[in-house]
Write a structure and sequence with these properties.
This protein is of the alpha/beta class and 333 residues long. The chain has helices at residues 57-67, 90-99, 113-122, 134-148, 169-181, 211-223, 235-247, 253-262, 285-290, 303-308, 313-323, and strands spanning 24-28, 75-79, 103-108, 125-129, 157-164, 188-195, 228-230, 272-275, 280-282, 296-297. Helix 3 (113-122) crosses helix 4 (134-148) and helix 7 runs antiparallel to helix 8.
Length: 333
């Protein structure tokens, strides 16, 4: 849980950035991916393949030290391949984070028994991505659920990641129904709906989900009491829908107030940071794909000066976010 306030605790207005450095870091430790049953997802925004590279443990430690310059970093989300087996230094990286009081998290798609066991013993949270096979999804969730309840488990939360688009809408409804009817998903915290970013493989073949269908997914999940989450890119869309639902008496005003406190619009380079596999900083992983930024070298540069600077790319980016009400100014999500 994060709690923020303004100049005093009584100040209503949230701060526009963390003055102490990022709270959360997304770090790509590999751009190798073997897909699900050898088949790559068609909407991978990175277009990853088995022919990639890994970040070294040494480079990883350097990036963490640079980002965590005030010992303020609370969570690290690993950018992994589908199986968590791509970078052999992953478990040593987890140990290093735990030694520095930072919780490791990550997203996978298809786990064998060994890597599921390691995740349960190292991660605080794990998301399982759905990529076309409900059988693979169910198998991976089951493995993590069983291990989550073991005595040595550190795994506090299991989520499901699902990319929403016009072309995947029907499967999203099926997934909500599966969580409602199948007790093998009883320990899943939430379905996290990820908005389509048209980059990488998703430049073609996928269409942004309509507002009506987006609203229907939310109403269906709420009606079936299924936990629901979103990437921050869609926060303002979610604000609009839940406000409408409160006006329609679909949800209570009290719940609306709670949700409005919990939901975080785009926090890229305000409260969170991103590093690619080469140790290069971008505002988020999608901005790296836009090709409009040179990036900042974390391995050699002074990140503290970059984060706190008043003239550079990160400062200009925050201005753009303010002007767009912290909705993504780059992609139509």
């Amino acid at each position: 849980m994060f709690a923020r306030w303004g100049k005093t605790k009584e100040t209503i207005k949230d701060p526009e950035m963390s003055l102490f450095g990022p709270e959360i870091l997304d770090i790509e430790i590999t751009d190798i991916c073997h897909g699900v049953d050898g088949k790559h997802c068609q909407y991978c925004y990175k277009s990853n393949t088995p022919n990639g590279k890994n970040m070294s443990l040494e480079a990883f430690k350097t990036v963490i030290k640079k980002i965590n310059y005030n010992s303020q970093l609370a969570q690290v989300a690993f950018g992994l391949g589908s199986t968590a087996s791509e970078n052999p230094d992953l478990w040593a990286m987890c140990d290093y984070l735990r030694e520095n009081h930072i919780v490791p998290n990550g997203t996978v798609a298809q786990l064998d028994d060994y890597n599921a066991k390691m995740i349960a013993s190292k991660f605080g949270g794990c998301a399982v991505s759905y990529h076309g096979s409900f059988d693979v999804l169910t198998d991976t969730v089951q493995k993590l659920t069983y291990l989550k309840n073991e005595n040595n488990s550190k795994l506090a939360q299991i989520n499901i990641h699902f990319m929403i688009a016009e072309e995947t809408y029907g499967e999203a409804l099926k997934l909500i129904e599966l969580l409602n009817s199948d007790n093998r998903f009883n320990y899943v915290n939430a379905i996290v709906l990820l908005g389509l970013k048209q980059c990488g493989r998703a430049k073609t073949g996928f269409t942004k989900l309509s507002g009506e269908k987006f609203e229907n997914l939310i109403k269906t999940a709420f009606a079936k009491n299924i936990g629901l989450g979103f990437d921050s890119c869609q926060a303002n869309k979610f604000f609009y829908v839940i406000s409408k639902m409160a006006n329609e008496k679909f949800i209570k005003k009290e719940l609306l107030n709670i949700l409005q406190q919990m939901v975080e619009p785009c926090e890229a380079s305000c409260f969170s940071a991103y590093s690619n596999v080469d140790g290069v900083y971008y505002h988020c992983s999608f901005m790296e794909q836009s090709g409009k930024l040179k990036g900042f070298d974390l391995l050699t540069g002074n990140f503290k000066d970059y984060w706190e600077g008043k003239t550079g790319d990160v400062y200009k980016w925050r201005q753009r976010l303010r002007e767009s009400n912290r909705s993504c100014p780059e992609f139509d999500v």
